[in-house]
């Protein structure tokens, strides 16, 4: 069965510092990978997905099949980036997402 | 996103009681999901439904049941609530027509406390 690991429960950085939220997965085939974000008092929402190769709010994530990772990065953190971030995986052709346990990002002024 | 609504938003119940959490959506999506969120464990899938006649167990379905009453409605029942079912419950929807990379849209959550 597939598994998603986010090793850090909490990541605290200062405004303007680079951010990397780690996500590792275990799955033998080709997965679809996503990052979801939950800001305070807001709903969980999609941030980005690997298939789109997009940058959203300055965040990027590259799928590294060799290392089975999908780390989320931003070169300069902003206070408004403070939120709970979840990495999620869907095996290609399968039906439902598997979420990691989440990382709380705290950006201090 | 008011297109996915959950009722009630908060619920306190006692051990052994039967309760139902409801989810409605106006997005016209065919797929619906129920998750629970616990501190340190993230979101875990309870049940999911890919259309009205399709119901599938997720990772942690024991102690739960679901009903897909219509394309727009998906309810979650706890037949006999127990304290370790205290959690935040989320409903989500997605559209199979979007293909790869389909997005899930989440409701606001229902906070359940079982005493």
Please write out the topology.
The complex is a heterodimer of chains A (109) and B (115).
Chain A: E1 3-5, E2 10-14, E3 19-21, E4 24-26, E5 31-38, E6 45-49, E7 60-61, E8 72-74, E9 83-91, E10 98-99, E11 103-108
Parallel strand pairs in A: 2-11
Antiparallel strand pairs in A: 1-4, 3-8, 5-6, 5-9, 7-8, 9-10, 9-11
Chain B: E1 4-7, E2 10-13, E3 19-25, E4 31-38, E5 42-51, E6 54-57, E7 64-70, E8 73-78, E9 87-94, E10 105-106, E11 110-114
Parallel strand pairs in B: 2-11
Antiparallel strand pairs in B: 1-3, 3-8, 4-5, 4-9, 5-6, 7-8, 9-10, 9-11
Overall description:
The complex is a heterodimer of chains A (109) and B (115). With 109 residues, chain A is mainly β. Chain A has strands at 3-5, 10-14, 19-21, 24-26, 31-38, 45-49, 60-61, 72-74, 83-91, 98-99, 103-108. In chain A, strands 2, 5, 6, 9, 10 and 11 form a 6-stranded mixed sheet that branches. Chain A has a 3-stranded antiparallel sheet with strand order 3-8-7, with no helix packed on it. Chain A has a two-stranded antiparallel sheet with strand order 1-4. In chain A, a hairpin with a 6-residue loop joins strand 9 (83-91) and strand 10 (98-99). The relative contact order of chain A is 0.35. Chain B has 115 residues and is mainly β. Helix content of chain B is 0%, strand content 57%. Chain B has no helices and 11 strands. Chain B has strands at residues 4-7, 10-13, 19-25, 31-38, 42-51, 54-57, 64-70, 73-78, 87-94, 105-106, 110-114. The model of chain B has no long low-confidence stretch (mean pLDDT 92). The interface between A and B is medium-sized, with 22 and 26 residues.
């Amino acid at each position: 069965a597939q598994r998603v690991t986010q090793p850090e429960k909490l990541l605290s950085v200062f405004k303007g510092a680079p951010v990397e939220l780690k996500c590792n997965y275990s799955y033998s085939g080709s997965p679809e990978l996503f990052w979801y974000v939950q800001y305070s008092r807001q709903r969980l929402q999609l941030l980005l997905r690997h298939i789109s190769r997009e940058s959203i709010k300055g965040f990027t994530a590259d799928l590294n099949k060799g290392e089975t990772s999908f780390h989320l990065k931003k070169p300069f953190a902003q206070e408004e980036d403070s939120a709970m971030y979840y990495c999620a995986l869907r095996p290609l052709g399968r039906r439902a997402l598997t979420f990691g346990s989440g990382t709380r990002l705290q950006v201090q002024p | 996103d008011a297109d996915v609504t959950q009722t009630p938003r908060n619920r306190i119940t006692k051990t052994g009681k039967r309760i139902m959490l409801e989810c409605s959506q106006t997005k016209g999506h065919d797929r619906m999901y129920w998750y629970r969120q616990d501190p340190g464990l993230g979101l875990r899938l309870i049940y999911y439904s890919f259309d009205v006649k399709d119901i599938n167990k997720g990772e942690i379905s024991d102690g739960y049941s679901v009903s897909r009453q219509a394309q727009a409605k998906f309810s979650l029942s706890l037949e006999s609530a127990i304290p370790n079912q205290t959690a935040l419950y989320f409903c989500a929807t997605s559209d199979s027509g979007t293909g790869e990379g389909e997005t899930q849209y989440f409701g606001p959550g229902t906070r359940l406390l079982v005493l």
